[in-house]
Amino acid sequence: MKILSEFFYLRKSDRKVILTLLCVIAIALVVIFLTGGENSESNALVAADSVPAKQNYRDSFRRQPYRDRTVYVRTKVVYRDTAFSRGKALVDVEHDSVVAHYQTKIKAGEHIVLNTADTTQLKMVPGIGSYFARKVVQYGQRLGGYVSIDQLDEIENFPLDAKDYLVIENAHPHKLNVNTLSLNDLKKHPYINFYQARAITDYRRLHGPLKSLQDLRLSKDFPPETIARLTPYVEY
């Protein structure tokens, strides 16, 4: 009461200044209170809206643009030509699917004739899939036919265990006439490179037709092992 009574004893101009200050302070407090309440309420709404209800998760996921979705896809790796042997390391369901993907394999003690087998028959050999089946057929065509199972070792990374299921029967390889073929035709064979083809044509030019590959034994390009490997594929 004392403060109030003293207030009325102030000069009129002083009372106006004090009242103006009090009004400004009051207005400022009201504005702060109102704006702060709205922000807190909006923040609460945003926070609530940003967390979808558990039961509506699938619907909200479908409404998202495709690029904003995170999709996890389960994948399975099948190794080239080794999936059959490595299938045992997979879980039962995956192992069964891998085995079903490949044709029935022949059993130990059963054999396939190498020179007459096509890719379908070769894929029945354990360890051989589509890739190596094609390689075996293609290399056999380049050779003119296989004369030994060990020639499969010349195919890069060929599975050695697969040789136990293959046999050679009545081999009749296609033969090259070394006295009539040109240098380009000779070097198409896997066992004859450019220098060996040139040695053959040079011998023919200088000495006449070859009677045997032994005629080339003095050439550094025809060591004994090369002559032995090439002999089943040449004629005179």
What does it look like?
The protein is mainly alpha-helical. The chain is 47% helix and 3% strand. The chain contains 10 helices and 4 strands, in the order H-H-H-H-H-E-H-H-E-E-H-H-H-E. The chain has helices at 2-9, 12-50, 57-63, 83-86, 92-101, 119-122, 130-143, 183-186, 194-207, 224-230; strands at 112-113, 166-167, 176-177, 234-235. Strands 1-2 form a two-stranded parallel sheet. The protein has a two-stranded parallel sheet with strand order 3-4. The radius of gyration is 45 Å and the shape is elongated. It starts with a helix and ends with a strand. The relative contact order is 0.06. The model is unreliable at 40-55, 66-80 and 82-88 (pLDDT under 50).
Task: Offer a concise description of the structure.
Helices cover 47% and strands 3% of the residues. It is mostly helical and 236 residues long.
Q: Which features would summarize this protein structure in a list?
A:
mainly alpha; two-stranded parallel sheet; 4 strands; elongated
- Average pLDDT across residues? 78
The largest sheet, given as strand count, sense and whether it forms a barrel, is: 2 strands, parallel
Kindly name the structural category.
Answer: mainly alpha
Rg computed from alpha carbons, rounded to a whole number of angstroms: 45 Å
**Can you list the strand order of the major beta sheet?**
1-2
Helix content estimate: 40-55%
Distance between the termini: 140 Å
The amount of beta strand, in percent, is under 5%
